[in-house]
Specification:
The protein has two helices and 18 strands. The strands form four sheets. Strands 2-8-7-4-5 form a five-stranded mixed β-sheet, with no helix packed on it. It has a five-stranded antiparallel β-sheet with strand order 9-12-17-14-15, with no helix packed on it. Strands 10-11-18-13-16 form a five-stranded antiparallel β-sheet. Helix content is about 10%, strand content about 40%. The chain has two domains: about 120 residues, Immunoglobulin-like (Sandwich); about 130 residues, Jelly Rolls.
């Protein structure tokens, strides 16, 4: 019995040694360090958050070539919820040894079915080969690096916005590990929300991908007879814009009704160039209308 126990112990030791030898040490010099920070440590689902990326290039770093940044959002069980892979605004091909590159991206947290502790894992890779660069951060084993922890809060933490009148049903398309959702307005559409009785910020992302003569080029936002903002629309860009709305502009009522008015509308089915059978009257395509 004692001999059998010694034999098993030796086999286990040999197995551990072989496994350790099978993991070749990554001796490649790191090309830099990555730091990531969030504008808030606790983020409600559906809300906007600013993510700041700071890369410090190593003094002896080689030419990095054209690379992208992978950004994976994981839950407490290490399951990926969504991604924000992107190309830095300053291409990596232009990064110089010793240089620091810093930029901020605004993203809306998807309405994912999870709340609780979460983390961001990130790194730099080649889109063509998926080859990842080595960084000085603590390696998770595949040249991916945990860069920040945060907490996901339920969507009920946000001001609840009602898409009241003048909206077509939401449309959704899958994009990578996430999805993109939007709603078209008619000529006029109304958003309603409980009056917080204090200044708020409206985060608005809207565009009009149509290019015909009847495509909307401008969106007017108003509460009652007060014009809050005039929003230019583009067929090629849909930036997130922010507008500060004062408590006085919101009025004294318990509920606020914000009106969206498109300067033009079009019907895809009536435009031969669009080759569409869509009979709806379309004004503006709205991706996000968030009150904070």
């Amino acid at each position: 019995m004692e001999r059998r126990v010694r034999t098993v112990a030796v086999l286990l030791a040999l197995t551990a040694t072989v496994a350790a030898c099978g993991r070749a040490e990554d001796t490649t010099p790191p090309v830099g360090t990555l730091q990531v920070s969030l504008s808030r440590a606790k983020v409600a689902l559906g809300s906007p958050v600013e993510i700041t990326y700071k890369f410090t290039v190593a003094a002896n770093a080689p030419d990095l070539g054209g690379r992208s940044v992978f950004v994976h959002f994981l839950d407490a069980d290490e399951e990926m919820m969504w991604t924000d892979d992107h190309e830095p605004p300053t291409p990596t091909s232009g990064w110089k040894p010793g240089q620091t590159i810093e930029y901020t991206r605004l993203m809306f947290v998807p309405s994912y079915p999870y709340v609780g502790p979460a983390k961001i894992v990130a790194g730099v890779y080649s889109p063509g080969s998926n080859d990842r660069l080595k960084l000085t951060n603590e390696d998770r084993g595949d040249r991916s690096y945990k860069v920040v922890d945060f907490e996901l809060l339920p969507q009920t933490e946000n001001i609840f916005v009602i898409f009241k009148d003048g909206w077509h049903p939401a449309e959704v398309v899958s994009e990578g590990a996430g999805r993109v959702e939007w709603q078209w307005t008619k000529k006029d559409a109304t958003l309603a929300f409980r009056n917080p009785k204090r200044d708020v910020v409206l985060y608005l992302q809207a565009d009009n991908p149509a290019t015909g003569p009847n495509a909307a080029q401008q969106l007017t936002l108003s509460v009652g007879d007060q014009v809050l903002a005039t929003v230019p629309l583009s067929a090629t860009e849909s930036p997130v814009r922010t507008y500060t709305i004062t408590a006085a502009q919101l009025g004294q009522g318990d509920m606020v009704e914000m009106k969206f008015t498109a300067d033009k509308t079009f019907v895809p089915a009536l435009d031969a160039a669009m080759k569409s059978a869509d009979p709806r009257e379309l004004g503006v395509r709205v991706f996000h209308a968030f009150i904070q």
